[in-house]
Amino acid sequence: MRFDEAYSGNIFIASQQDYKESQAVLYGMPMDFTVSFRPGSRFGPARIREVSLGLEEYSPYLDRHLEQVNYHDAGDIPLPFGNAGRSLEMIGEFVAKLLQENKFPLGLGGEHLVSWPIIQEMYKKYPDLAIIHMDAHTDLREEYEGEPLSHSTPIRKVCNLIGPQNVYSFGIRSGMREEFQYAAESGMHLYKFDVVEPLKNVLPSLAGRPVYVTIDIDVLDPSAAPGTGTAEAGGITSKELLQAIHLIAGSELNVVGADIVEVAPAYDPSEQTQIVAAKLVREILLGWVK
User: Fold this and answer.
1) Phi first, then psi: what are they for 174, rounded to 5°?
2) Considering the chain, what is the average pLDDT of its residues?
3) Which of 76, 118, 127, 191 has the greatest number of CB atoms lying within 10 Å of its CB?
């Protein structure tokens, strides 16, 4: 994919065609090759773009308009279907290019494994990187049925790379007993069930640090986001997730990139999952891109 060419399909609202002048770059990672339950998240990025056309470009939460952020929608990375290893390499190469040119990368998944090569590239540029992870699931397995490339493994891989003490997980309500034991014994920061209150307590300790934020849409309760591969009852509301985004926007964090993953449109004919994801993208662009 050439960065200086306009994406020929649907683009997110208010996207600028000039890549070189952009502050942030939105890109899709249409991969769902390692999921353990329901596939379909490879269609998430395209549908999030499409439903964004129903959004206002102005945020009443932040009193900002998308015309105030110069961002470019680069479209989807053309990942080879079924080839997880090569797909991860291509995502890493793509993000490395963005970071070389000092862009804010905002990725759309795709399954959660797509976050792994992004964070690898982030860590190369920011050795003191911290991760904020919002999810229903721990994602701390080392493998799933013998396969280390699985959407249930990315946060364990990240802990091994940057140190578990630099990983902060919120909203967790599902995982193997061994995963929760690892979190408790390793020194990582895992907060069960809630996001907003523990995030308030954590943010001051991360002030000034480069932080990458990864959001699995299933951190939301299925009543708010049924369109995901592995829905998990007992989640937070969309209002609470927006509040978390705005808390980060109002903090002293140096947010260096983010992703929203696991939107699977086929399971939500009401479109509420895709619509909330599009709104999250708008608020991230307006709140986190300085």
Assistant:
1) -155, 140
2) 94
3) 118
**3-state secondary structure at position 229:** coil
In a domain, 217, yes or no: yes
Angstrom distance (rounded) from CA 247 to CA 221: 20
Report pLDDT for 87.
Answer: 95
Neighbours of 178 (CB within 10 A): 12
3-state secondary structure 222-236: CCCCCCCCCCCCCCE
Q: Let me know if residue 176 belongs to a domain.
A: yes
Q: Which of 86, 103, 83, 84 is nearest to 95 (CA)?
A: 103
Local confidence band at 72 (pLDDT 50, 70, 90 cut-offs): very high
Number of domains within the chain: 1
pLDDT digits (tens, 9 = 90+) for 39-52: 899 999 999 999 99
Nearest alpha carbon to residue 242 among 269, 193, 282: 282
Q: Which domain holds residue 170?
A: 24-288
Q: How far apart are CA 25 and CA 42, in angstroms?
A: 19
Peptide bond into 250 cis (omega under 30): no
Estimate to the nearest angstrom the gap between the alpha carbon of 35 and the chain centroid.
Answer: 16
Enter the tokens of residue 53: 């056309």
**Structural domain contains residue 173:** yes
